[in-house]
Design a protein that fits this description.
By secondary structure, the protein is mainly beta. It is globular, with a radius of gyration of 22 Å. The protein has one helix spanning 2-13, and strands at 35-38, 46-48, 54-56, 65-74, 78-80, 82-89, 92-100, 106-108, 111-119, 128-136, 143-152. It starts with a helix and ends with a strand. Mean pLDDT is 81; it is low at 3-30.
């Protein structure tokens, strides 16, 4: 009987499951930055400059409006009428929508400096996210640039 009591006392002191920690800020990169990469587009003329691309606010969390400043260059002139932004949490799509550019359509002959704004869902679960931003011309089916931004909340 003493041994059963002792086993019960020891097992009660050892937690079986850790309480989950809810992370609300960007934590994926050592310096707190979004991880940028280029994805393919229909026009195939865009080259991302990941070093000069930026975002704000820093840090950010669920419910925040993000500003992505995407820098790069094009080998042929393009006009970006709008962007299609898809935000995924793992494999689950949280947002999938077209967004107008703040200043209207923008044309680029060489250097590209394109700023966009979009909001994260206010109840964004913690985990890995991918935002895919595709710039399009007058037809949303023809993309002329594509950027992937990966981060964790």
């Amino acid at each position: 009987m003493k041994s059963a009591f002792l086993i019960g006392a020891v097992s009660a002191a050892i937690p079986l499951f850790e309480a989950p920690v809810e992370l609300l800020e960007l934590t994926d990169a050592p310096n707190g930055q979004v991880t940028w990469s280029q994805c393919s587009s229909s026009a195939d003329v865009w080259t991302l400059d990941a070093e000069d691309s930026s975002y704000s606010p820093d840090p950010f969390g669920g419910g925040d409006t993000l500003t992505f400043e995407m820098m790069g260059s094009v080998s042929s002139p393009i006009t970006v009428q709008g962007v299609h932004v898809t935000v995924k949490w793992g494999a689950i799509t949280l947002s999938d929508a077209d967004h107008d550019l703040e200043g209207g359509a923008q044309s680029f002959d060489d250097a590209v400096d394109l700023s966009i704004n979009f909001s994260l869902p206010s109840v964004a679960p913690s985990g890995s996210y991918t935002a895919t931003i595709k710039g399009y011309d007058t037809s949303s089916s023809t993309t002329n640039m594509c950027v992937e931004a990966k981060f964790k909340l």
